[in-house]
Design brief:
By secondary structure, the chain is an alpha/beta fold. The chain is built from 12 helices and 8 strands. Helices cover 48% and strands 17% of the residues. Helix 5 packs across helix 12, helix 9 packs parallel to helix 12 and helix 11 runs antiparallel to helix 12.
């Protein structure tokens, strides 16, 4: 009997952290299946979901599923890297939808820099009209070009890098804003970070105030984790907190002039959410600066 040929080693690995969201994971994998996956390993790292995605796993037989019991997307992404030997690493989140040419573009852009962050478009999962949260997200969510070209970091929901870079920088760290922390560490080591508008995924907007509040509570906790905890750090954080209402006024023209919103109803709902969220963040940040939990 002939010995079966060993499978060729993958040139790239797509790493998808997942936790208890099988419908969106299915949508993510369906979108990836429309891409050219030649030489690419797709790896889902389930973060020990209470309901394991067994139905999804059965449907996508060519996708590899592993379980990471340590909680957090950072641990899941690190496990994904450890599970593959592919030299190229493509990161996407389970609730994202890749464009049909996302993998092809990822291969094209990989040689151009050490870290490449792409565009993240926002779409609504509910029928119109938009809620205040959806309208706010349509204007402000996922401005990766600003993150990369102005603030000097990128997210990991649409990220291309190499194993060599990842191993030199080290893994993602939990308990902080892991995207900001990891890409900032990479840039500080001299690695080049660029933005590519043609590397596109889409992400659903938060549909209501509760979901938007939960998102920003988590981000505020993570950002405080990388802020520092000295008295001087806390004082700077308090000043940033007090500037939150001012920032709402500064950003109001962006809302009112946005061509992403349909009519004055959506614009006014987005403006109301802008002020509500900035005042909420001010309260959270002041509590953090005083050593209180949020």
């Amino acid at each position: 009997m002939a010995t079966p040929k060993p499978k060729p080693q993958p040139k790239a690995a797509i790493i998808i952290p997942h936790y208890n969201d099988p419908d969106r994971l299915t949508r993510c994998l369906e979108a990836l299946s429309r891409n050219d996956l030649t030489g690419v390993e797709v790896l889902v790292v389930d973060n020990n979901s209470p309901q394991p995605p067994t139905d999804v796993q059965a449907r996508f037989a060519d996708t590899r599923f592993v379980v990471e019991t340590e909680k957090g997307a950072a641990a899941a992404r690190n496990r994904g890297v450890a599970e593959t030997i592919a030299p190229l690493l493509f990161f996407i989140d389970a609730d994202c939808v890749a464009a049909d040419d996302w993998v092809t573009k990822a291969h094209e852009v990989a040689p151009t820099a050490d870290l490449i962050g792409g565009r993240v478009d926002v779409f609504d999962e509910t029928p119109p009209p938009r809620s205040g949260a959806e309208a706010f997200e349509a204007v402000f969510a996922f401005n990766f070009q600003n993150y990369i070209e102005v603030q000097g970091f990128t997210g990991s929901g649409n990220l291309v890098t190499t194993r060599k870079v990842f191993e030199d920088v080290g893994g993602f760290r939990g308990g902080v804003s892991e995207d900001l922390d990891w890409s900032t560490r990479a840039v500080s080591k001299g690695y080049r970070l660029i933005y590519r508008d043609d590397l596109v995924v889409s992400h659903p907007s938060r549909s209501d105030w509760a979901a938007l509040r939960h998102k920003w509570l988590r981000l505020t906790q993570e950002l405080f984790g990388v802020n520092g905890n000295t008295p001087r750090d806390r004082a700077k954080w308090a000043l940033r907190a007090l500037a939150m209402p001012i920032s709402a006024v500064v950003h109001l023209p962006k809302v009112l002039g946005s061509d992403k919103l349909d009519g004055w109803g959506e614009k006014l709902r987005a403006a109301g959410t802008l002020f509500r969220l900035r005042f909420q963040r001010m309260i959270w940040m002041l509590r953090q600066a005083m050593g209180q939990s949020i």
